[in-house]
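@channel anyone free to eyeball this complex?
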Amino acid sequence: MPLLSCPEVDLHTHTVASGHAYCTITELSRAAAEKGLKGLGMTDHGPALPGGPHAYHFAALRFIPPTLNGVRILRGIEANILEGGQIDLEEPIRQRLDLVMAGFHDGCGFDHRGAKENTRAMISLMESRRVHVITHPGNPIFPVDFVAITKAAAETGTALEINNASFHISRRGSAPHCEAMAKLCARYDVPVAIGSDAHFSEGLGAFDHALQALCDAGIAPKQVVNRTLASTLSFLGLEA
Ligand SMILES: [Zn+2]
Ligand SMILES: [Zn+2]
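replying in thread with the prediction:
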């Protein structure tokens, strides 16, 4: 069983801009530095989520410096996957971002569609190459065909997230789905992202449950895209 080291980058975090998270990016970056993280994905929820930020939040992310408190800030979004694999951010703004993640969330206009339609939307988005990471695909509220999505992720080079919060604080019932998906990711050599999904600084860099699931599944270290800052930047096509 390969040993996976703790990722240097937390790809999935939320600031006050998300409407239901409680730290500023300055506070998160300070906490990240204290925890020894080298990078941080600032991935606030997309505008379709009730209470989420306006699109202008994402348009103006250029005001955030690339490094804060010595931590590389990846200016991103956790967009919402909508009808036909669309997301809730216009293309010109999306293109300015360092990191585009997307997942299914309640109350955004794409609820209770069933596994077939969910899978179709997720694969369409991956095939459009407009997303780097699919967040928490193990959520039982939004069932998907794991064989189909892992194969599509491998073909398109999209990372599937193993979300640490899904094991203990959010999206009850996700754990067996995440474990099954991790095994398929190992089989099909799918890029994998690990995220804390922190909504407060205390949760930053919490990866223990996700790392355990990935180790148990036999994921190779090179499959974890955010294992180092360098591997993260390379995956995103960004300069150091
Ligand atoms: Zn949230
Ligand atoms: Zn989410």
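from a first look: The first strand starts at residue 9 and ends at 13.
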